[in-house]
Amino acid sequence: MNFRRLWAMFLARNHEFFRDKAAFGWNFLFPFLLVGGFAIVFGSDRYNEYKIGVFPVTGSAVEIEQLVLPDRFKKQRSFEFIPFASDQEAFDKLKHHKIDFLVKDNSATNEYWVSGTSQKGYIVEQLFNAALTKPEDVVLGNKRDIQGFEIRYIDWLFPGILAMNMMFSALYGVGYFVVRYRKNGVLKRLKATPLTAFEYLGSQMLSRNFLIMFTIIIVWVGCDLLFSFQMAGSYLMLFFLFFIGSLNLTALGLVLASRGISEEFTSGIINFISWPMMFLSEVWFSLEGAPQWVKIVAEAFPLTHLLTAIRAVMNDGAGIADISYQLVFLLSMTIGFLIIGSVAFSWNK
Amino acid sequence: MSALLEVRNLVKNYKKVKAVQGVSFSVQQGKCFGLLGPNGAGKTTTIEVIENVFPPTSGEILYKGAPRSATFHEEVGIQFQQTSLLQFLTVRETLQTFKSMYKRTADIESLAELCYLHDFLDQMNDKISGGQKQRFLLALALVNEPELLFLDEPSTGLDPQARRNLWDIVNRIKGEGKTIILTTHYMEEAQYLCDEVAIMDNGKIVVQGSPVELIKQHGGDVTVILPKSSFSNLKEMDNLNHRIIEDRIEILTDNTNRCLESLLSRNINLSDIIIQSQNLESVFLNLTGKKLRE
Description:
The structure holds 2 protein chains of 2 kinds. Chain A is mainly alpha-helical. Chain A has 13 helices and 4 strands. Chain A is 63% helix and 5% strand. In chain A, strand 3 (101-104) and strand 4 form a beta hairpin. The longest helix of chain A has 31 residues, at 153-183. Chain B is built from 10 helices and 14 strands. By secondary structure, chain B is α/β, with parallel strands linked by helices. The radius of gyration of chain B is 23 Å and the shape is globular. In chain B, the strands form 3 sheets. Chain B has a 6-stranded mixed beta sheet with strand order 6-7-8-3-9-10, sandwiched between helices. In chain B, strands 2-1-4-5 form a 4-stranded antiparallel beta sheet, covered by helices on one side. Chain B has 2 domains: 3-216, P-loop containing nucleotide triphosphate hydrolases (Rossmann fold, 3-Layer(aba) Sandwich); 221-277, 2-Layer Sandwich (Alpha-Beta Plaits), CATH 3.30.70. Chain B starts with a strand and ends in a 6-residue tail after the last helix. The interface between A and B is medium-sized, with 24 and 24 residues.
């Protein structure tokens, strides 16, 4: 192991990253755009989860007060009323799930239409029928407040977006890149020097970790200024977790990079791994209530454990003892990936 | 003089392809050894196995009298036939990066002077011309002051001027006493640069020796070419071994003096004469029945 060689390759890789203006810019811009977009969509009062078609209504907007519908239905939060002049036009939209529910204005028999395959339609249907209940028959539940500060969706979502960005950066930045270098002969040229596989792979891994951490810190600070995230735990612990996660995912990238010369195939494999990981690791939504087998699959993904630990630190102020299981899991997996990646590595086509 | 490198009965197979079939040769210290042959002859595979880029199927490779050790790559310089380099680095930075790989290193300014890199030393390594790239790759192969230098078709794709420049640099490197192994399919390159040549075809060495010896032994006849119009009567050619090709007459002779005397005695106009001497191309043609660049 020669540190001079490792350092030279580390610097060369960093130069490539920082000088590739398009890729460099995108690495920063992407999380900002995503978080900004979500903040606008979910943070605004205008965001409406359910789209209710009403007919016959002329004009481009619905005057809710003018509608002859149950009051409690009209005043529901998260409803957006969309006007239709005729029922035929509205039926077509309902059939194609462009709207969740269709109701006839001023109908003596409270006529409505809903798609049997629409979950959202089902919920609106229940609310509509509940709104038809006479006020004297309504029994309200006993609302209680939870203690502590309120966790906004953006506080829950942001670590997921950062981790997802980190995952793509690690897998493509190492996996795809090394395969491309194998294909075009750069690895062959490096093999003709005293550089060892361990030094080369180590430099790629460290470089990518450095770049990921650099990006995460900049994006975190930038987004925090915009959205003022709630932070219950320690920043040191948070960034330590990101570092461990980055190590783990770059090591997984090394496994993907160990063989092959087809960028298309590698890209396919990266998608095959990253897409289920993105959807089942609670980046976007919680898996509470999901089928047991989905939860078991999710447990196998490093991103699941990373996000569980990060959210525990950020939202609940967890310390190292609270997240020790996730840490041990991530570190063990990292060691496993490193062993597989280095044993399987080939310089040549 | 001792052999710096010795190759014994080298075989390299890729699945069903027998790329190299029992190649043996030795390279003396300070000499330039050329592997000459057409594309697909097995030249590149042979030197890439010697360079330790690929393992041999069988055979023995001795460097300084012993199997290649872990320090082999410290002592050799390699220029591949086609090389891509680390992206977004200047020529100077690329040299610096590769320099960091070795214990013994050359000074970048001296390398730039030797290989004429000064004009583009601070340009991005993918923004230079073909000739500049070949000189840069040569400098890259010299960055560790190697004892043994491998050059795989160093001038392929270059224009004649750029090729001449490259040959001058290689000659200067030879002058420094370095040992060179070079592959080429240009006979002029082999004749100009190499002290010893092995001609390869179909994964085997067909013949081996100095260019002068090979031409002498296997070069065949000299061809004397004259336009048909130089002859008033073609019967004047009766006693000469000749063939008529379109509007020219080619006379094959093993004694140029006697042939010219004979033509002069017949009062043939020699103003448009072309004398095609033997070269390594004719050696290859005579030994394999094929042209080098078929």
